[in-house]
């Protein structure tokens, strides 16, 4: 026995020494080839203008806190109104999506106002009003009052988000615009994932009203961040005659329609995944939003740079296909591992897709229409999300949550087809840069 053990030990030692030698040989071969690539990458980065200025960081922080506070309520309102107010599942979409009634009116005008007046002042005023509306949720004990508060919140959210996004674009060097828009959009998209994750825990531990106080606190911190922003000097704006193109970026209408398909899916995921998790026996649904957020953050390591290098269409198509495929899997595989894996991959897809979509709008707009471009992009996002929330309540109530996510998948596949056949060739004809 001892001789056998000794021979095994000798053999194991030989294998380890052979592996070590192989690693040394591999490193000696790879490192000389890799060093020029690393140096070239660093030289390329050093030649680019600075992206992360203090003002840009503050606008990203403000964006995050604003979106996070708003999205604290997205997954919890369906739980609150069904569990505490006794509202039927088919009616939850009406309450959730009611804020878009104001958005449809405010978004176009907000782009015009942000292009016309000082953007920092517009952001501060609208942000303060946005935070004040949160106090209305303390008195929203009926569906009618809750719908009214949601409408008021939609109006202030519409102006605040457009002002913040447009100010972020102003603060980004033109050479790094796609990367800068991508990071700024990521802060907002990340908040839309982190907010629900935090919200689920606070709601179950402390209740809905504590959650509202947390949203108010985040909003106040966001306002403080805005005060530290130093916006760039803008050329005086010529007061042109008011025309429809000041409110909506009409050259981008196919992209706007295309955007509705994946945003429909976003609305159903954020709003109903908590209820879906409970229906399949996964009660720690907050983990979905954790992995969703990780996926969004991971997308930032490559998506923005790919767009800056001219691969915006590849990013959009691959991202939509990824979302479509994993939403289909989400409807059939219902264990905790699939739950987390799908969340990660959907986050990766949406984190790549949405900033790339916004870049299409920016590249189809004049410099004097940045506010209009941001407003049109955000309007497309909000309308798609609202339609998803509204329809999702009926589909999940009349059929099932599984059927809802199959519908999401089909719509995203249709979005890919529309992009290839219409949006992509249209963009190439109409782009300005």
Key terms:
single chain; 433 residues; mainly alpha; Growth Hormone, Chain: A; 79% helix; 0% strand; globular; disordered N terminus
Query: What's the mean pLDDT score?
Result: 82
How far apart, in Å, are the first and last alpha carbons?
Answer: 77 Å
> Which residue ranges are poorly predicted, with pLDDT under 50 across at least 5 consecutive positions?
1-13, 18-45
Report on the biggest sheet. none
> Any idea what the radius of gyration is?
24 Å
CATH superfamily: MFS general substrate transporter like domains
Count of folded domains: 1
Helical amount among residues, as a percent range? over 70%
Would you count the extended β strands for me?
Answer: 0
Describe the structure.
The chain has 433 residues and is mainly alpha-helical. The chain is built from 16 helices and no strands. It has helices spanning 2-47, 54-71, 76-83, 92-97, 99-116, 119-133, 143-170, 177-206, 208-227, 253-279, 286-299, 303-308, 312-330, 336-363, 370-398, 401-430. The N and C termini lie far apart (77 Å). The model is unreliable at 1-13 and 18-45 (pLDDT under 50).
Question: What's the layout of helices and strands?
Answer:
Elements (H helix, E strand, L loop, with lengths): L1 H46 L6 H18 L4 H8 L8 H6 L1 H18 L2 H15 L9 H28 L6 H30 L1 H20 L25 H27 L6 H14 L3 H6 L3 H19 L5 H28 L6 H29 L2 H30 L3
What can be said about this structure in brief?
Helix content is 79%, strand content 0%. It is mainly alpha-helical and 433 residues long. Helix 15 packs antiparallel against helix 16.
